[in-house]
Amino acid sequence: MRATVFMYLVRIIFGKEAFEMLVRLYAGEIILGKIQLEDVPKGLYKRVYEYLVDMGYIEPEATEAE
After folding, report:
1. Where are the domains of the chain?
2. Res 3 pLDDT > 70
3. Which is it for the CA torsion 31, 14, 7, 54, positive or negative?
4. How far is CA 63 from CA 42, 60, 66, in A?
């Protein structure tokens, strides 16, 4: 709950640039092995995941069932 409120306030007060900086910060921490993707707040999880896929650090999950 606190993380959700924090993300909401960051978006309002600092704008999109600060939000993207947080995405890069969490992605960097994951790349360095300091945290796991599961440790990322819910409000940032999807964007951090997409960022890591775009950068080639993780493989995208299959979205279609075979």
Report:
1. 2-55
2. yes
3. negative
4. 19, 9, 10
